[in-house]
Design a protein that fits this description.
By secondary structure, this protein is an alpha/beta fold. The chain has three domains: 157 residues, P-loop containing nucleotide triphosphate hydrolases (Rossmann fold, 3-Layer(aba) Sandwich), CATH 3.40.50.300; 53 residues, no CATH class; 45 residues, no CATH class. It is 25% helix and 29% strand. The strands form four sheets. Strands 5-6-7-3-8-9 form a six-stranded mixed beta sheet, with helices on both faces. It has a three-stranded antiparallel beta sheet with strand order 2-1-4, with helices on one face. It has a two-stranded antiparallel ribbon with strand order 10-13.
Length: 273
Amino acid sequence: MSTHPKPGPLIEAHGLTLVLGGRTVLNRIDLTVNPGEIVTLIGPNGAGKTTLVRAVLGLVKPTAGAVTRMPGLRIGYMPQRLNIDATLPLTVRRFLGLWRPVERTRLDRALAEAGVAHLAQSPVQSISGGELQRVLLARALLSEPHLLVLDEPDQGVDVHGQAELFDRIADLRRSHGCGVLLVSHDLHTVMARTDKVLCLNGHVCCSGRPEDVSRHPEYHALFGRHADQLAVYLHRHDHTHATDGHVQPGTGGDCCDHDHHHEHAPEEEHRHG
């Protein structure tokens, strides 16, 4: 299925401000998500990340500022959490069909794209937290979205599962050409898989490429002075690793992406040749 949107921003927020109960929750936020782009919102608890998402989705009316959406924009939304009645007998496939009638082939295709096709007949209550997050991702794909909005999709997922989930999201971005607006509590988890980061604390503290944000003084003020000790970077190469660990030259085909995690002090110079 093709979701490739027309050129131009999918969604833009300008000067977005929200005041609730006399308290300024969001203050003059600017945000743009383009087709094929992953934009990640990070920040401490209470920073306004989910509130900003709700405002972008039109679920909350801003006090000031404006949100512009591409005409005909289709959004696939993955909520931060979803409570399911433990007594309700419900397979994964039936769960996905609760909101609107969907052809079985589309349901199965979405499950396959989310990496959980094998769970179609499983009771929802029997699957793990990480599997449920994949099912919720499949649910977001059913709308054939131009924009995927994912609110902390790695909740309840172990470290290995997080890496696989974010790789899956990056693959979907490439195959569908859709934009992704992602909320995460941890920059390092998504660093190698995002194009742009907005660090929020009621306002935009800093923004830009993830490696730049990780070195920004305001990021350090929020997350601690050693917040950049874990560097996550991406490299591409044209070789393979043999089972004994030796490097074998490639055949000239496509390069492979690998994420590497290294802990080092901020003052150290780290190079990867």
